[in-house]
Amino acid sequence: MTPSGLRRLLSALLLGLVLLWPVQQAQAATDPPTTAAMQLGSEEGFLVFQPERLTIAAGERVRFEVGGLGPHNLIVAGHPEWSHEPLSFVVGESWEQQFDSPGRYAIWCEPHRAAGMTGEINVLAAESAAE
């Protein structure tokens, strides 16, 4: 390749990077919040949340997935808007919920609450979680 051809190639590559930078930055700004995961019921057949306690930052999403021995649902104390009341019967069925307000929230599976299927989601203020 000649020196002038090499310069044209490098100039085109640099121009491409300059033009794509704003697109990449806009995509980063619209990425969904971080997602944590919690399993309802274990593969071994235990009536548990795994993990039993989860700590996240305000604005994060939690992916809830049926892990075994259903049916399961999710009730968040004092927050019917965050609860998933329909019973989920199929292992692998999942849904996501975003938690925006800092606080400690008791959770349980309605059909298995008496059997001890309870847990907690601790939502930290975004500033506290970053530290």
Structure characteristics:
single chain, 131 residues, alpha+beta, Immunoglobulin-like, 2 domains, five-stranded mixed β-sheet, four-stranded mixed β-sheet, 2 helices
3D architecture notes:
The protein has 131 residues and is an alpha+beta fold. The protein has 2 domains: 1-31; 35-130, Immunoglobulin-like (Sandwich). The chain is 25% helix and 36% strand. The chain has 2 helices and 9 strands. The chain has a 5-stranded mixed beta sheet. A hairpin with a 7-residue loop joins β5 (72-76) and β6. The radius of gyration is 23 Å and the shape is elongated.
Beta-strand portion reads 35-45%
Any idea of the CATH topology of the largest domain?
A: Immunoglobulin-like
> End-to-end span in angstroms?
52 Å
> Tell me, what's the shape?
elongated
**Spatial order of strands in the largest sheet:** 3-9-8-5-6
Q: How many strand elements? A: 9
Q: Pairing-aware structural class of the strands and helices? A: alpha+beta
* Overall CATH architecture of the largest domain: Sandwich
Mean pLDDT: 84
Radius of gyration from CA coordinates = 23 Å
User: How many separate domains make up the residues?
Assistant: 2
| Fraction of helical residues | 25-40%
* Annotated CATH homologous superfamily of the largest domain: Cupredoxins -  blue copper proteins
Can you summarize the main beta sheet? 5 strands, mixed
- Secondary structure tally, helices: 2
Reading off the top of the CATH hierarchy, the class of the largest domain is best stated as Mainly Beta
Low-confidence runs: none
